[in-house]
Amino acid sequence: MNKLRFQRSQLCIPYGLFLVCFVFAPLIVIIYYAFTDGEGQLTLENLISFFSSPNTIGTLAYSLGIAVATTCCCLLLAYPIAYILARSSFKHKAVILMVFVMPMWINFTLRITALKEILTVIEGNLAYHPFLNTLIGMTYDFLPFMILPIYTTLEKLDNSLLEAAADLGADTVWTFLKVTFPLSVPGIISGIVMVFLPSMTNYVVLDMLYNSTYIMGSLIGAYFSAYDWHSGSMIALILLIIILVFTMFTNRYADEDAGSSRGGVIGS
Amino acid sequence: MKKIGSGLRRRVWLTASAVCAFSLLWLWKPVQTVCASEEPVILRVCNWEEYIDLGEWDDEEAITLDDGTVIFGEKPLYEEFEDWYKETYGKTVRVEYSCFGTNEDLYNQLNLGDTYDLVCPSEYMIMKLMAEDKLLPYSDHFYMESDENNFYINNVSPYIKKTLETNEINGESWSKYAAGYMWGITGVLYNPALVSADEAATWEIFGNPKFNRQVTLKDNVRDSYFAALGILKADELTDEKFVHSADYHERLADMMNDVSPETIVQAQELLDDLMDNLYSLETDSGKADMITGKIVANYQWSGDAVYAMDQADADGFELKFAVPKESTNLWFDGWVMLKSGINDSVERQHAAEAFVNFLSRTDNAVRNMYYIGYTSSIAGNDNDDTVYEYMNWCYGASEEDGDIMEYPVGYFFSGDNRDKDYILQASSRQTGRQLYSQYPPQEVMDRTAVMRYFDADANKAINQMWIDVRCFDINDVPMGIRIALLTAMLFIIWALYKKSLSKNS
Lengths: 268, 505
Known about the structure:
The complex is a heterodimer.
Chain A lengths: L12 H22 L10 H8 L1 H34 L5 H9 L6 H16 L6 H26 L3 H9 L4 H30 L1 H6 L7 H10 L3 H29 L11
Helix pairs in contact in A: 1-11, 3-6, 3-8, 6-8, 7-8, 8-11, 10-11
Chain B lengths: L1 H35 L4 E8 L14 E2 L5 E2 L5 H13 L3 E8 L2 H9 L6 E2 L3 H9 L3 E2 L14 H5 L2 H9 L1 E2 L2 E2 L4 E7 L1 E5 L6 H4 L14 E4 L2 H12 L1 H5 L1 H4 L4 H8 L5 H15 L2 E5 L2 H7 L5 E5 H14 L4 E3 L5 E11 H4 L3 H14 L2 H11 L2 E2 L9 H10 L8 E5 L1 H4 L9 E5 L6 H5 L3 H4 L2 E3 L5 H15 L8 H26 L1
Parallel strand pairs in B: 1-4, 1-5, 11-12, 11-13, 15-19
Antiparallel strand pairs in B: 2-3, 5-15, 6-15, 7-8, 9-15, 9-16, 10-13, 10-14, 17-18
Helix pairs in contact in B: 2-16, 8-12, 12-22, 13-14
C-alpha cells in the first residue's frame, strides 16, 4: 500500500480528461462546422455572410449594447454599496453582505418571473420598453457578481495607505481618487468580466421579459434549430474570439494594476 | 508530516477504488437484469414531453361514463403496455421511454445518432422523414380489421384516416407510415369581455391597432407564417366564389403552403409590421398571460386553448376560442417507426405496432385525452363508444342545465355528420368554448389546411426570413450614431492597448 505513490501532476488527469472531452473536442467540432458548408466542403462563406448581413451585425451591436449598459448599471449600483460596506465600521458586515447575495440563492427564472409581475404593475404593459426591461432584468440578475469582487478588494485595502494619504494632506475625495479607486480596479475588472460576458448571451432574460429581439445566444439557437449548423457554429466561434480578446485585455490590465500580487481575473 | 501524507494518499486510493467499484456495479446492473429473464424485446419510444398518461390518479379522479365504463389510470401507459403485451402475446417487452422538446430537436437527435424504434413527430416532420426514406411502413397485419387486437385500425376516426390517406408525398400516402395520435387546429384565444367574436375570428386581429401590444403570436416560423399568409390572402380566402369552387380544398392547401420568394418577402414585411403591434412572441407563456389579463388575444393551438379556458373558468372569468374565417391549420402528431431503430427486427416491429395499438384502445385514448388535454385521433367504432361517451361526460348537458344545442360530431366519429348517433346535446354556452376547440364543428373543419414540409431551399428561405424578422436591424440606427459608436469602441480598445504596452515596458 505504501509503495503506491503518484506525483502531484497526476492529479490533473481527471480534469485533463474532462477538458479534452467537453472543451477541446466540441471546440474542434465547432471550428469544423464553421468553415464547411452543407456538403462538407471548406468554405469562408459563413464568415463573409456574418460580416455582410446587416442582421448579424445588428444582433452583435444589440448584444454589445445590452452588455455594456448592464455592466455600467451594475457598476454604478455596486460600487457605492461595496464601498460603504467595506469601509463601514459595522461589526457584522457579513450579515449585510449576505442580504445582497441572498437573491442568488433563489433560482433565477423564479426571480425573473417575479420581476415580470413587478414591472407589469409599474409599467402597465411590458411590451413598450423591451430594452429597458431587459436592462433591469439583467442588472437584477448580475448585480451580486459585481458587488462581491469589488467588496473583496476594498475590504483588503490597507488602512495605513489611507492614513498616509491623509497625513500628506489629501482630503477624502482626493484620497478616494488617488488611492482607494486605483487600488480597487482589479475588483472592478473582475466584476466587469463576470457581468459583461454572460450578459452578452443570456437570452433567457430577454425571452422571459418578452423582448423578441435576438441577441447572440438566441441567434445561434435559431440557426441550430433551422438545421444550419454551419452559420450557427461560425457565430459561436466569432463570439468566442470576442470573449477571448476581451479577457486578454482585462487580464493584462488587472494583473499590471495589481502589481501582479493578485491574480484577480480568471477568464471565463 | 510524512505520516499525514501517506494517510492522505491511502484515503485517496480508498475513495478512488470505492468510486470504481460503484461505477462497475452500476454498469453491471442492467446487464444482470437482462440476463435474468428470457431475452426481452427492447422498444425505444420517443415522445413529446407530457404527452402520455402517467397514471397514478387519485381515487376521486376515476371517470365513470354513462354506460358504466370506469376509466382509471393506475400506472404509466407504457408500463401497462409491458403487462398487456406479456398477457396477449406471451413475450416480454421492455419500453425505454424518452422525450423530446421540439420536432427540430428530435430530428437533430436522430441525425446525431440516437436510435429510436417509435417516435411521435408532427405532420411536417413525418413528411420530412418520409421524404428522406427514414421510416418503415406499417405491416399489412397492422391494417387488418379482423384482428381484434388491432385497435388502431378499428378505432381510428374516419376523418383522420381520410386525411392521412389523401395527403401524399412522393406518391405515397401518409397513412402507410404514420398512425395518428393527437390532432388539433389553430385559432385565436380571446377575452370576450374586451374582444368581440368578429374581431377575433380573423388572423387580422394581430395587426389590429385597437389591440396594440395586447396580442401575441407563436415563437416559431411555421405558425407565424401561417397567420401571415392568412392576412396576406384574406380577400381571396374569404371570397364566396373561391369558397364554393369545386377544387376549394386543393387550392386552399396550395395557398396556405405558398412559399414562393415573392410571398416570403411580403410575409416578412407584414411580420415586421406586426411585431410593432404584438405584445410578444411566446410558446408557453401566452396561456398564463391570457389568464392574468396581460393580453387580450393570442394565437393558440386548440388543445392549449382548452387548458387555458379550464384555468380561466376555475378563476371565475371567461375566455373563448375563435377559428379565423380565412383558414386554419390542421395539425396532428403521429407514431412512425424508424428504419434505423427497428433494423429489420420482426420482434421489435411487432412490439412497436402493438404499442400503437395499445394506445389506440379507447380507454387508453380517453386516459391520454384526460391527461394531455388534446384531442385523440381515436374515435372508437360501432361496438365501442367509450370516446363519445367521454365527450358526453365532459360536455353533455340536459334540459335542466338551461339552453341546449345540438352539436353534430358525426364527421369525426362515423364519417357522416348527419349520423343521429353522434349528435351531442350540449349547453349552448359551449359555443366558442372547450367543446368547440376540442371537436370543432364541420364548417370549421371545411376550411382547414394541412401545412406541408417545404423542400430544403424553401425551408431555408422561410427560416432565414424569420431570423431576419427577429434580428435587430443595424440599418435602423442612423449612420452618424453608428460611426460615433464604432469610433468610441475603437478608441477604448486603442487606449487599453496603449496602456498595457506602457505598463509592460
